[in-house]
Amino acid sequence: MAVAEDNGLVNELGEYVAAQLGAKLDAVTFVNGELAIKTSAAHITAVLNFLRDDSRCQFKALMDLTVVDFPTRARRFDVVYNLLSIAHAQRIRIKLECDEETPVPSVAGIYSSAAWNEREAWDMYGVYFADHPDLRRLLTDYGFEGHPLRKDFPLTGHVQVRYDELAKRVVQEPVELAQDFRSFDYLSPWEGAQAALPGDEKAKDGDTDG
Fold first, then answer.
1. What are the beta bridge partners of residue 31?
2. Pairing state of beta strands 90-98 and 34-39?
3. Is 208 within the bounds of a domain?
4. What pLDDT is stored for residue 188 in this prediction?
5. Residue at 160 is within a domain
């Protein structure tokens, strides 16, 4: 596998990882001076086990696990793993592509911190992690419909939540708006205000400070 050129230890590490993992990797590149590799869901556990345990890698800390949504692609999601090697003061990023239907193996057995990250990814994007010990929603409420960080999720949401005085409990109802989307002008109060503000009547065009 050809490895994109970079200088120093990062290049050496990239060549070493590519040589050791071989067909398990789809690409090895360098982004902002850091090593980035691309693999598949079928090989993610083998790749992460190697990066954690190999003496020249020792990426023992999972700093982040997140998802990026590309809704026009057949495999619309990139699952991204950011690892840190404290022993070698190196970082590495691992990516894999997946779709809405195909499960991605959970890596909670490799990095215990991944359990919460995978729950958040499932909740926000709907990426299913197979063999996760407790794959439940993490940030949204029970019975929430959809996955709110998908780019095709409606801006208004599907339901609205309010406290019902008669029922004496919180109820969920379909969103009812007079328009499909709220309007935001993103201007400051001084630039976006249309009505006259107190004191405006004192201002005249052309006035200057004395």
1. 34
2. parallel
3. no
4. 60
5. yes
Q: Using CA atoms, how far apart are residues 38 and 5, in angstroms rounded to an integer?
A: 16
Mean pLDDT computed over every residue of the chain: 85
The model's pTM: 0.76
> Strand locations in the chain, DSSP E?
25-31, 34-39, 61-69, 77-85, 90-98, 104-105, 129-130, 159-164, 169-174
Please name which of 55, 46, 51 lies closest in space to residue 23, comparing C-alpha atoms.
Answer: 46
Count: domains in the chain: 1
Which tokens in the block code for residue 18?
């590519």
pLDDT tops 70 at residue 187: no
Domain that holds residue 110: 9-195
**What is the total residue count of the chain?**
210
3-state class of 15 per DSSP?
A: helix
Do the domain assignments include residue 153? yes
Q: What's the CA gap between 24 and 62, in Å, rounded? A: 20
* 2 lies in some domain: no
- Could you tell me whether strands 77-85 and 159-164 are parallel, antiparallel, or unpaired per DSSP bridges? unpaired
Under DSSP, the state recorded for 202 is G
CA 76, CA 84: separation in Å to the nearest integer? 26
Measured between alpha carbons, how far apart are the two ends of the chain, in Å?
A: 74
**Residue 181: count of CB within 10 angstroms of its CB:** 9
Residue 207 DSSP SS3: coil
Rg (CA), the chain: 25
The CATH number linked to 107 is 3.30.460.80
